[in-house]
Each structure stands twice: as C-alpha cells, then as structure tokens.
Amino acid sequence: MKPSTLIAPPALVRRAEKHDTKAIQALDSAHFIHPFTDHGDLATRGSRVITHAENIYIWDSEGHKILDAMSGLWCVNAGYGRKELADAGYQQMMTLPFYNSFFQTTNVPAVQLAAKLAQLAPEVGGRKFEHVFFSSSGSESNDTNVRMVRRYWDLLGQPQRKVIISRNNAYHGSTMAGASLGGMSGMHAQGDLPIPDIVHIEQPHHFEHAHPGESQDAFGLRAARWLEEKILSIGADKIAAFIAEPVQGAGGVIIPPATYWPEIQRIVDKHGILLISDEVICAFGRLGHWFAYEKFGYKPDLVTFAKGVTSGYVPLGGVMVGDRVAKVLIEKGGEFNHGYTYSGHPVACAVALANIELLEREGLVARVKDDTGPYLAERFAELNKHPLVVGAESCGFVAGLMLVKNKATQQPFDEGVGVGMRCRAHCFNSGLIMRAVGDRMIIAPPLVMTREQIDEMMALIKRCLDLTESELRLVGELG
Ligand code: PMP
Q: Within a domain: residue 6?
C-alpha cells in the first residue's frame, strides 16, 4: 500500500474557516434536539462544533485537530475526505437522484449493490445470502427483521412463533422495535419498552458475569446456555428468532469467549430458531472480514448492516436475507407489506458501491485482518500494564478496556466517581475521540489507520490514562 493512497491529496484538504462558535452553539441549543443528549447540560456547556475532517482526523470550530478513534460513530471505515465517494454521489444525483423501488420498479445502483453484497456475503454450511432488503439505518433494518421473521413463521403455519430473544446491554437501534430488541435499561425506561414478545438473556461478559476462577471457555458455554434455558422456559414452539451482535459495540466492546458462538449455533439449530446477526458495526471490514459471522463461523439467517456499507457518507442500511427465509417469503409470501421510501435509494447505493470498490482496491479489509488489526491488538494489550486498566483487548478494529480502582482485586470505582467521563474529558482535551461506556473506554478507528497512526493513537491513549490517574489521585480516589 502506497502511503499516498491513504492520505488525500492536498487539493482536497479544506482549510479551517473562521467560525463564530458561540453563535453556532446558541442556535444549536435553541433549535436542534440532539440524539442521546441532556439538553440542560448542552445549553450550559455548549456543543462541540465539528467543521471538517480528513483521513482519520476531525477539526472543531476552534481549530483543534482531533484524532477520531471512533470513526464518527463506528462508520467512517474508509476515512474522511474520500473524493471517490463524493464523486459517486454527485454523479448519481445528476443522473437519477431518486426513484422509489416500490410497485415493481428498480434502479441500476440498487440492483448492482444487491448483487455485489450477495457476492461478498460468504456461504457458510451450505447457507447462502442471495437477497438484500434495503433501508436507511440500522434501526429500520432491525424493524424489518422483526416483521420479516414473524411473516416467515406465519407463512410456515406457525403464527404462535413470535418471541424474539435478545440480550441485556445489546444495542439494536432506537426505533420502537430497535430499542426493544436492544437491552439498554435506560432506553427501556423511557416510552414503555420493550414492546411485547421481546425478551432478553444476560450478555456474555466474562468480567461482569463469570464465577470466580471460571475460564473464558467455560463461561462462554454457560453464557450460551442461558439462551437454551430461556427457550425452554417459554417453549421452543413460541420462539421466532435470536438476535445478537457478533461483538457487542455500544454496550462497551464486549468480545465473547471463543466457545460462545458455536454453542449458540448448536442451540438455535436444535430448536429450529432463526438467527439474526446484527452487524451494523461489525461488517464491512471492522473485524477484518466483509461480514463478521464468517470470523466466528456461525450461520445466521438474517444479517443486519448499515454504517460501514457507505462509510457513513450517506445513510444506508439493510438486511441480508439468507436462503432459508428468502425462499419462504418469495415462494409463499405474495406481497410483503413493508418498505421505506428510501429503500434502495440510488444515491446511497451508488456511494456504497464506490465505498466497497475503494475498500477492495486498497485491500483494507485484508489489511485489518492480517496487518493493522493484529498490530492494534498487540499495542492495545500493552495498556494492561497501566495501573488503572484491566481487560484491554481488541478484535479487528474495535477495542475496549476497563478502568478499575484496584487492579489486583479488579475492584471498580464507585459509580459517583464517573471515571469513564473523566477519562473521556481528558481525551477530548488532548485531541482524541475515545468513547466512554460506564467505566469502559472503547475505540473503533477508521480502517485506513496505518501502523504509524496506531502508534500516534496509542501515545494519546496512554497520555489520557496517565492524566486520568493523576486527577483521581488528586481527588483522593486512588491510594
Ligand atoms: N445495531 C447495532 C449493532 C448498532 O451498533 C446500531 C447503531 N450504533 C444500530 C443497530 C442502529 O443503527 P442506526 O443508528 O443507524 O439506526
């Protein structure tokens, strides 16, 4: 890989314009209701205004350059400033900016993308993915999944199979179905969720749920069997599907033990239950594969995708529909009364095609698998030497660690200390985007990140951990 292909040519680097940050912040808090934001807090502190971006860096309106170790929101896989993607969007807007795909109509980019995705999704255990349903987000795609699995069982004469099993601390979106499938207690507490017939089992998080001395492998088997216990307690004939992220993302980058997924596969097969792999974060190279089920070797029936399919340049999501479901829907289903105005949006699909071509041309998926991913794993694990850190580990280009008060006993900080938010503030102030999920600190860098840039990021992370440690000593939270 030539470095020049990784960094945009100078002509593309937009200069920081002068911005009146205070005026933008005032307008922002007066008119813009943000997702997942405390607006009282926003009004007092003002939002950070991001003005432009290049490669793995973003700039704010005050001119600060920040290394974006979260790829926007786990999505800018190809990095910022990629002219090919802007050109593809522009060309498609000038050719056909929109037409719907309802009522037996189609458009060329949507057809080409569906075929390309079918080609990229690997066959496992004789199960193929020849079909795609398009949406504009991960949430919409998971709503589609709920409707699709229930329709599937109805068509097979088993309408009582309605229950979908998910996991606590999972994230599957923010629509009524998405938030219900998710296992975030804070989301369930607002708006009477989950909706009926969605139930949850515990997540495979060794740090939180393992018995003292229990090995990763033994814990992985035990955690998978929570699924079987739930199936048996409800009755297998009532269960429609199990949904899970290959590696939990928003829950804090929780990487399951190696024994987990094979045991889950055994259980869903035994009970004939559909398996939904929510790969909104994990697909398109994030774990070093086009689709993450390949990495873990399980056989999903439906695969949710979004984010990385366009590297976040325009919204696009969808569901890869495996043959088992597609055959029933197509052969027995007649009209499926479901769809979105923007299903198969020509501009989004054209940008996705250009994005996939770029990832292929630059070999970024293979690079994460064979080169930068293993290098990140090696460098990130070094953080386990830090006095505040346990469980620093990565999988492809996602990584997480836990901040603890006492390394030897793994004693956590009191909740009131807000250690994650303290660390995150040091990251912001030091020019690094690293996300806090409770006491876990997580990253998901753009796939274009080079070894040198991994070193640069690791130096920043180390500095921010040191600053957090000093602050905690100062306020008497560390001995
Ligand atoms: N599923 C997973 C695994 C996700 O991580 C997300 C978003 N972070 C979603 C679904 C929802 O996607 P969106 O925000 O595009 O609706």
A: no
